[in-house]
Structure formats: structure tokens, C-alpha cells
Design brief:
The protein is mainly α. It is built from 7 helices and no strands.
Length: 201
């Protein structure tokens, strides 16, 4: 009996803490000025990322050697030789998301930030959970599909961006794994089936 009472008391405390957190969060989100400020920050971050990503396609070849093997304090220095329009910070962000993560489909991340910002500012109402779900699926699918295209077609040479893996390291790793398990035709079949299932949904 004593143990049950203690458990009930502990559960009650946890429940009260959750309610307190929810009330505080609701209070914060009810403040229009704060919502507008956070939304503006999200949109500002999104445009910073978009400009960084866009510039990476033009300046990435020159910046890549510096980003891959930076000397101590080189990127934070004034004369860092980075040519990205958004400076060394933009170059690092673009290199991380495009080269090391999801490739071109990383552009969907700032798009979600813009939607979140507009929703917070109450400029337009979006179902953010739904958008997050769809954009996440699209980002992963396009990462794999573009890595496959980049690996098995000369598209990078045609576009003159052979220094970029269009699907990023995420897509490249997944393609290599599935190639070892189901082969190249199997990857094509999986991509087509998942695309049809998503479009049907």
C-alpha cells in the first residue's frame, strides 16, 4: 500500500510538471510580439541558408579544398579566402548540409523554416506537423534518388558541378548499401515503388 501511494504521488508530480510546462509554453506562444520575433528569426535563418546553398553551386569548387582541410583558425580569420556570398559561415553550412547530409534536397530545410516562421507570425496558418512529415519524406527520397543519378549517370559533368554529390553523403551511403543488397535494378524498383506509394497516399 505504501509503495502504491508513493507511486501515485510521483505520477501526480510528473503530471503536474507536464501541465506546468504546457501552460508556460502556451503563455509564451500567446505573446504575439515574441511569436513575431521568433518567426522573423526563422525566416532570416531560412534566407541565409538559401543564399548559402545557392552560392555553393557557384563557389563550392573554390571553397571545397579550404572546407575539407582548414588550417587552425583559417575559417574564422578575416582573410580566409572563402568566396561564398554568405562568408565562411554560409560556406560551412552549405558544405555540411549539401555535401555531408542530403545534397540538393537540403533546400527543403529552409523551406520548412519559412513555413514555420510564417505560421509563428500568424501571417498564414500551416499544419506544420503535416508539412514536416511530407518534406522529410521528400528530402530522404530525393537524396537517395539524386545520389543514384549522380553515381550512375554523367549528370554532374553535364551540369559542371562534378565537385558536388547531388544526393549528399546520406544518399550515397544508402545507395551503396542497397546496391550491395539488391543491386542497381533493385534500387530503381525501390525508388519507383516508394514514389508510387507516396503519390498514392
Amino acid at each position: 500500500m505504501a509503495n502504491r501511494k508513493r507511486q501515485n504521488i510521483e505520477k501526480g508530480k510528473k503530471h503536474n510538471k507536464k501541465n506546468t510546462v504546457r501552460k508556460r509554453w502556451s503563455g509564451i506562444m500567446a505573446n504575439d510580439t515574441l511569436r513575431f520575433a521568433i518567426g522573423s528569426i526563422f525566416i532570416g535563418m531560412a534566407f541565409f541558408m538559401l543564399l548559402s546553398f545557392g552560392s555553393y553551386f557557384l563557389t563550392g569548387r573554390a571553397d571545397q579544398s579550404i572546407l575539407e582541410n582548414p588550417h587552425s583558425g583559417e575559417l574564422s580569420g578575416i582573410n580566409n579566402q572563402i568566396t561564398n556570398i554568405m562568408g565562411s559561415g554560409g560556406a560551412r553550412i552549405a558544405y555540411f548540409f549539401i555535401d555531408q547530409c542530403f545534397g540538393i534536397s537540403s533546400f527543403l530545410i529552409p523551406i520548412f523554416l519559412i513555413l514555420s516562421g510564417l505560421s509563428l507570425m500568424r501571417a498564414y496558418r500551416f499544419n506544420l506537423l503535416k508539412w514536416f512529415f511530407h518534406l522529410s519524406i521528400l528530402m530522404v527520397w530525393f537524396s537517395i534518388a539524386l545520389a543514384f543519378i549522380s553515381a550512375y549517370t554523367p549528370i554532374n559533368e553535364w551540369l559542371r558541378i562534378d565537385f558536388i554529390n547531388l544526393g549528399g553523403q546520406h544518399g550515397e551511403f544508402v545507395c551503396r548499401y542497397f546496391k550491395s543488397q539488391v543491386g542497381i535494378p533493385g534500387i530503381v524498383i525501390l525508388l519507383v515503388i516508394t514514389a508510387v506509394l507516396y503519390l498514392t497516399y
